[in-house]
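@channel sequence for tomorrow's demo:
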Amino acid sequence: MKRLPGSFGLLLGVAGAVLILVWVGADGYKQTLVTTTATYALIALGMYVPYLMAGSLSMAYGAYAGIGGYAVGLLSSRTGLPLALAWVAGPVVAAAVAVLLGLATRRLSGFFLAAVTLLFGMAFTALLVDAESLSGGSGGLGSLRKLDLFGWEPSHYQVVVGSLAVVCVIAFLLDRLRMSPWGVIVRTMRDAPRAVEAAGVRVSVMNLVSLAIGAAIAAVGGGLFTYSAGSVTPDTFTLNLVFLAIFMPLIGGSATPWGAVLGAVIAVELTLNFPAVQTSGTLILALGVLVILLVAPQGVIGYATRLARLVGGRRG
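structure tokens (generated this afternoon):
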């Protein structure tokens, strides 16, 4: 029987999610920690397609996550519409904003693209503070209502289970996308854009599509975090989170989207859940990234794969 491409990664991801759920149990702090990890992972997965596959570094992912978060906040506090619609409206709006920003910056690359999109993220935060009648200003939106799915209101633990399921599904789909003909073209376009253009593929259009996909995924993460926290403010999704999201795939392994998920787990463990290094977790994380780039450029997953092949070769 032919194995579905990417199924091994999904199997490992599901196994890891089950172990996390066993570890979490009924501990409220651990449940919050897992939803934070899922948010980090989704933002990192959102950056994976345009950044690591297409080679376009955008720093506006705090804004995209914020759009998803405020979609949940606004639908909850300002309308009577079903809250589930926020996870449709948020990603759609974020994708549209990403396309418009991509059109405006289509001639930029490298440092200049990063700088302009960074300024956009800062401008978005300032807009949220100033638009007090809509966004609640610097205080944001709070006391959000619970999700109601045909009379069923999921508990906090069920939200944790759902968030892990969403991360696994999106990571699996991105892994399939990476191995698809479209993914091969996008990865080729990163290294040889002129060759792709010569083959009749519009590089600019492919870039816009990758940006839209990434923004939509980040918005899903923003909505998840806002619902779990019960509130959202202009400072909920800071530049610190964006910078961490850049390094997460490098830590876990840039060759596969699952590396972004593993990188998110490691980043949260060091910066939020390891008491021995909690005050200096970000510094240790930065040093870890440096060591990984020097010793194992393919990240933890790449290094583990290489060790497995080496051990397997010796046994053979």
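heads up for whoever presents: Residues 203-229 form the longest helix (27 residues).
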